[in-house]
Write a structure and sequence with these properties.
The protein has 587 residues and is an alpha/beta fold. The protein contains 24 helices and 17 strands. 43% of the residues lie in helices and 15% in strands. Its cofactor is Mg(2+).
DNA sequence: GCCGTTTTCGGCCCGACTGTTTTCAGTCG
């Protein structure tokens, strides 16, 4: 389905940039906020208009709401067309560059008559900008650097990569600096967003040790450039595997830890909302603590819990801090008890050497039993359509099932379950017979072809097969590489509920599929989810951690995730569907 | 432009660092 929300969000972001340029800060803020809200909406804005709920969204007032309606009706926003004429086109993009603020750009435009990026670069180099009052050589140098940095700052890294770099850096700092008391990577990494811009590291230490810590940090071998260096905050560019990332380090006192953690974990919208509420209660929150507004008396700040408690809220898990209703829920003590990694009892999507996995079933079992406290895993190799992946036909699948039986027998356990990742063909049928599928414990059905057509019909038809238990990576996206194929996920969620089919949260780092928006919607509709690694090698089993993170961001609790249950409970789910469709149950 | 158990007008998160200043504006997160 065509996504109008994103288009609207982009227009509002541009309007915000223009208002900033026009020195209308607060209007700019309002549009920026509206852009974020619309981007995050679980539903098409047209549905909000149809149900009259558009005006009820906090942050969307009558003016912006009418602009949304105007866009839906005419495909245009008159005000935006007018605004565009007031600002040189290139400047809308330039305002996002590091070192370029609205004031700077405005003066360059007004005093030098420069209106394109090209002219700007020329003026920076030939000294015209340096000669403006209040500008100097350093400022010009930073602006030139900003132009270069733009590409870096635009590229975001995926969560898994950010977590690996985070682990590496925190361990290195801890090991070399005994002066560090506490350390944590904050920002969007701690919130476990699917992609990350900069890395933010927070530490506590005694004041006298700050300099030493900053010296060590800014001279790490990975550092290619020091952007900012002070006693409390430093920013550097680091190179990891050839790719450049900005990393910030901030130092606090132990008694400020909770407030600093809360502050720098964000999100920005969450913090702004939190502060508004604090203000209403006569309190002030900053990164050093919670204070009484009148007397400046400190009332909290050593732990994050104390910060939230001071404003009358329960502690909010970082994954929820996006201002999507978590603050209201925390005030009413109604936050969900989110699923945790330790709740996971098994992996329902694993490939072996029978198709395109690189490890034998036997070795997978040994590894998982040694490293994970799982009660079961399901081997789900590819079916025959996946020729490049050596997909299995009926005959080879039956051979694989014999091997599984043998491995279980030799171990004296019933640890390995029989499954398949069966291809959904163009017409929605499956590329293995029901006869064979009926012998399996668990069937994942996935779309692996025809990514440009609308695949809603195929997926729904597959769910109507009594032996299909989950839809694998339902939207087919690859973060940063491939957009989701067209699919009406509302219809898919509805069909999942009706047929008793689960939706997969595929934990492969580039998939994260379904995403947090659809997870939340599935949860609200009572659809069961499974978190699976889709492992093709032994290292892949670790992806479960980020699969759980994304489920938490979608407000999923333990009961929403099928593989937090014992195998008996999963079998019950499978048999409920078989019963509904009047076919023989498995035992 | 948004919002409201102190408000329909008058606020809007707040502190660190930098560069160009000689006390601070601009930018950033």
């Amino acid at each position: 389905m065509y996504n109008i929300n994103k288009d609207l969000a982009n227009i509002f972001k541009k309007m915000a940039a223009i208002y900033e340029f026009l020195d209308d800060r607060f209007r700019a803020m309002a549009y920026q906020r509206a852009a974020h809200i619309i981007e995050d909406l679980p539903d098409d804005v047209r549905n909000y208009i149809a149900t009259g709920k558009l005006y009820m969204i906090r942050g969307i007032g009558s003016s912006i709401a009418s602009k949304i309606e105007e866009y839906v009706k005419t495909g245009k926003i008159q005000k935006y067309e007018e605004l565009k004429k007031k600002v040189p086109e290139d400047f809308i993009e330039l305002i996002d560059l590091p070192g370029f603020g609205p004031k700077t750009l405005k003066r360059i435009y007004e005093e030098l008559g420069i209106s394109t990026k090209e002219e700007l670069v020329k003026a920076l180099k030939d000294g015209r900008i340096e000669q403006l009052e209040g500008f100097g050589p350093k400022k010009v140098e930073n602006m030139l650097k900003g132009l270069q940095m733009y590409e870096i700052s635009k590229r975001r890294i995926i969560l898994w990569e950010a977590l690996q770099i985070s682990k590496y850096l925190t361990e290195k700092l801890k090991k070399n600096l005994k002066e560090i008391h506490k350390i944590e990577v904050v920002g969007s990494t701690r919130r476990r967003k699917e992609t990350i811009g900069d890395l933010d590291i927070l530490v506590t230490a005694d004041d006298k040790d700050r300099l030493k810590i900053m010296d060590f940090f800014t001279s790490l071998e990975e550092v290619s450039e020091v952007l900012v260096k002070g006693p409390k905050k430093s920013s550097v560019i680091m190179k990891f595997e050839g790719k450049e990332r900005q990393v910030d380090l901030r130092i606090f006192k132990d008694e400020e830890w909770g407030a600093a953690l809360q502050y720098f974990t964000g999100s920005k919208q969450h913090n702004i909302h939190l502060r508004e509420i604090a203000k209403e209660k006569g309190l002030k929150i900053n990164e050093y603590g919670v204070f009484k507004a009148d007397t400046e008396e400190k009332v909290a700040g050593e732990t994050e819990e104390s910060v939230y408690k001071a404003v009358g809220m329960d502690w909010i898990p970082p994954e929820l801090r996006e201002d999507r209703g978590e603050i209201e829920a925390a005030m009413e003590h109604k936050l969900p008890e989110l699923v945790e990694l330790k709740d996971i009892k098994g992996d329902l999507h694993v490939h072996s050497t029978w198709s395109d996995g690189v490890v034998s079933i036997k070795d997978i079992v040994d590894f998982v039993r040694k490293n994970y406290r799982y009660e079961y895993i399901v081997i789900t190799d590819h079916s025959k359509s996946q020729r490049v992946a050596h997909g299995l036909d009926e005959e080879r699948l039956l051979e694989e099932l014999k091997e599984i039986q043998l491995i279980n027998k030799m171990a004296g356990l019933d640890f390995v379950k029989k499954g398949i990742e069966v291809d959904i063909l163009l017409d929605g049928s499956l590329d293995l017979s029901d006869e064979v599928l009926s012998q399996l414990d668990w069937v994942v059905a996935s779309v692996h072809s025809h990514f440009s057509r609308d695949n809603t019909d195929r997926i729904i038809k597959a769910m109507e097969n009594p032996y299909v238990n989950a839809i694998g990576h339902p939207t087919g996206r690859l973060i940063g590489l491939r957009e989701p194929y067209p699919v009406d996920m509302d219809a898919v969620i509805k069909a999942a509920k009706e047929t008793g089919t689960a939706l997969e949260i595929n934990a492969q780092p580039r998939r994260m599929d379904i995403d947090e928006i659809w997870i939340r919607k599935a949860v609200e509709n009572g659809v069961k989810l499974v978190i699976s690694t889709d492992a093709h090698n032994l290292g892949n089993f670790a992806f479960m951690e980020i699969g759980v993170s994304i489920a938490r961001r979608g407000w999923a609790t333990k009961k929403d995730i099928l593989n937090t249950g014992s195998w008996k409970e999963i079998q019950k789910f499978v048999n409920q569907k078989r019963k509904k469709f009047g076919v023989r149950a498995i035992k």
